[in-house]
Amino acid sequence: MSLEQLPPLREVIEAHGLRARKSLGQNFLLDLNLTGKIARQAGGIAGHDVLEIGPGPGGLTRSLLAEGTRKVLAIEADPRCLPALAEIAEAAPERLEVLQGDALKIDPLPYLKPPIKVVANLPYNVGTELLVRWLTPKKWPPFWESLTLMFQREVARRIVAMPGSKAYGRLSVLAQFRSDAHICFELPPQAFSPPPKVTSAVVHLQALPESRYPADPRILSDVVARAFNQRRKMLRASLKGLLPEVEKTLETVGIDPKRRAETVSLQEFCALAEAVRNSRQT
Ligand code: SAM
């Protein structure tokens, strides 16, 4: 059986008794036109290895294979999905490898060859954690060329938010520090089975060859975590534990210590992280 001859996803779900489990964030996409549209947002995946987290019954997986990927590595927590995924693997010989387990605990790198892209309709419970890990590896450029990911719309807006907006925060700074990020399109709850409570959105992040401004990623990450943890407070208060004389450091990089985190640009956060690094070295 070829990929095109596989049965409709509703039949697959029925045949394998895949009743959606809320605890696993299971909201399935059953429209292959839609999964094809998501796969194409990744921009030229033919010949690439693709990492997919949470394939479920395999709608997006089928589309990724149909777009000519060299290999799809799919990590799925729910063992009930394995027989459905095995049918897809049979229809695309040697191109789909499935690992069963928690994506937070599995290192996919030994199973992938560059160039690599990540495409996933992420489970809401681990989506942000995975994104932060992919954005803050020890070495840059990272193992991935791009990330094409489905999130709740609210999370997608945080990734692309600019200073001064309510959505601007740690995710915006970490994403924009080393990638170009944009929202591709939104999906209403009815696009999924069962429909979630919220609207979703697909985000595309293209890795930059190097960070937009110089900064030590670990210090930057620490600075923004502290600053946005108490986002209503002035920086001189929220960053108190960062350095003994934090007000002075803020002033040396031209940031008024009375400002709040949501007004500080990426460039300013990077300059602050560099100043923190310098003052720790002296
Ligand atoms: N990709 C499928 C689709 O688009 O229809 C399913 C997407 S559904 C939103 C999320 C999937 O992630 C589910 O199949 C769920 O079982 C799986 N999942 C949940 N937590 C996971 C984890 N920690 N590691 C790997 N997969 C997980």
Mean pLDDT: 96
| Silhouette | elongated
| Percent range for β-strand residues | 15-25%
The sequence of SSEs as H and E is HEHEHEHEEHEHHEEEHHHH
Largest sheet: 7 strands, mixed
Task: Please list the strands of the largest sheet in the order they lie side by side.
Answer: 4-3-2-5-6-9-7
What fold name stands as the CATH topology of the largest domain?
Answer: Rossmann fold
Per DSSP, the total helix count is: 11
What compounds are bound to the protein? S-adenosylmethionine
Q: Name the structural class.
A: alpha/beta
Q: State the separation between the terminal residues, measured CA to CA.
A: 67 Å
CATH arch. level architecture of the largest domain: 3-Layer(aba) Sandwich
Helix content: 25-40%
- The low-confidence runs, each spanning 5 or more residues with pLDDT under 50, are none
What CATH first level of the largest domain would be assigned? Alpha Beta
Counted beta strands: 9
What does this protein structure show overall?
- There is one protein chain.
- The protein is α/β, with parallel strands linked by helices.
- The protein has two domains: 3-207, 3-Layer(aba) Sandwich (Rossmann fold), CATH 3.40.50; 217-281, Helicase, Ruva Protein, domain 3 (Orthogonal Bundle).
- Helix content is 36%, strand content 18%.
- It is built from eleven helices and nine strands.
- The protein has helices spanning 9-15, 32-41, 59-66, 82-91, 127-135, 153-160, 170-178, 217-229, 235-238, 246-252, 266-281, and strands spanning 28-29, 49-53, 71-76, 96-100, 116-121, 146-152, 179-187, 192-193, 200-207.
- A seven-stranded mixed β-sheet has the order 4-3-2-5-6-9-7.
- Strand 5, helix 5 (127-135) and strand 6 form a beta-alpha-beta unit.
- Residues 24-29, 53-56, 59-60, 75-78, 81, 102-104, 121, 123, 126 line the site of S-adenosylmethionine.
